[in-house]
């Protein structure tokens, strides 16, 4: 009898220890997701960004796409500059950058005469570059800096929740944002609500003007 | 389980404590380096693109 009771107690305590262990592992996964991936991603993005800046150091010049095509500045989301690279696979986005779409709908580039410059980045973890996307309001500036040009876009529409199947938000003329004519648009996509990816958050902007980059890379008024 | 590990570690209490810490660190390292990066894409927390997939 006492032996049987000991056996049962042993099984229950082993089970309890397993539960505690599972809880600790999940806790560590949160630490990993929300902190460690940011550390790794920011380190990678800083390195790549510094390389791009190095290559740009000889002053304004032709478009240069190696390591990244330029930097996105969104004052409403924070002071960080976001390196922009080609592609939206997790291998690319996990390095703390924003990627422009090549699939399912190919993104236009800012220098193109018409089209939609479509970008994705992480909301949480891996640099969390679009973490504050909900702070973007109509009229806020989204500035893209290439080697020789500042492209100043203004937000005109947000879509706080849509499904991942809604690829039409990436169309060259994003009808869902209310536009019907070809123009020079920018589209930011990320996941929502925060910390999950049940839905997608979309922000659209339209090019307001461009400025040539000068010798000192003086930023446009929106970034001062 | 943990009691069993403790009893099977060599040395006195201090040595066992030291070995335990090393084991814990090794497990955490393995989780951060191998297990979590593997598990993450399988969980629905970090899909940011509209791709219809």
From TrEMBL, chain A:
Transmembrane parts of this sequence: 12-36
InterPro entries reported in the protein's UniProt record: Sortase, Sortase_Class_E, Sortase_dom-sf, Sortase_E
A Pfam family it matches: Sortase
The entry's keywords: Hydrolase, Membrane, Transmembrane, Transmembrane helix
Tree of life domain: Bacteria
Protein name in UniProt: Class E sortase
Gene3D superfamilies registered for this protein in UniProt: Sortase (2.40.260.10)
UniProtKB/TrEMBL annotation, chain B:
Transmembrane segments: 12-36
The entry's keywords: Membrane, Transmembrane, Transmembrane helix
Domain of life: Bacteria
Name of the protein in its database record: Integral membrane protein
Organism name: Streptomyces narbonensis
Lineage per the UniProt record: Bacteria, Bacillati, Actinomycetota, Actinomycetes, Kitasatosporales
């Amino acid at each position: 009898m006492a032996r049987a009771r000991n056996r049962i107690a042993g099984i229950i305590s082993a089970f309890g220890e397993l539960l505690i262990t599972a809880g600790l592992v999940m806790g560590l996964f949160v630490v990993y997701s929300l902190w460690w991936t940011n550390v790794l991603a920011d380190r990678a993005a800083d390195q790549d960004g510094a390389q791009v800046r190095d290559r740009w150091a000889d002053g304004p010049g032709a478009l240069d796409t190696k390591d990244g095509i330029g930097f996105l500045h969104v004052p409403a989301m924070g002071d960080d500059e976001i390196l922009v690279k080609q592609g939206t696979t997790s291998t690319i986005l996990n390095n703390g950058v924003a990627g422009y779409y090549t699939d399912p709908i190919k993104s236009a580039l800012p220098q193109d005469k018409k089209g939609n410059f479509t970008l994705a980045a992480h909301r949480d973890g891996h640099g969390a570059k679009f973490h504050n996307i909900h702070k973007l309001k109509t009229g806020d500036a989204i500035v893209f800096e290439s080697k020789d040009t500042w492209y100043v876009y203004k937000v005109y529409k947000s879509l706080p929740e849509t499904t991942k199947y809604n690829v039409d938000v990436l169309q060259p003329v994003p009808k869902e944002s209310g536009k019907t004519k070809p123009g020079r648009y920018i589209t930011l996509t990320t996941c929502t609500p925060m910390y999950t990816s049940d839905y997608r958050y979309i922000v659209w902007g339209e090019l307001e003007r461009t400025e040539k980059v000068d010798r000192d890379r003086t930023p446009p008024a929106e970034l001062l | 389980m943990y009691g069993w590990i403790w009893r099977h570690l060599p040395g006195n209490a201090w040595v066992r404590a030291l070995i335990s810490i090393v084991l814990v660190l090794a497990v955490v390292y393995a989780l951060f380096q191998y297990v979590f990066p593997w598990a993450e894409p399988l969980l629905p927390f970090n899909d940011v693109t509209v791709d219809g997939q």
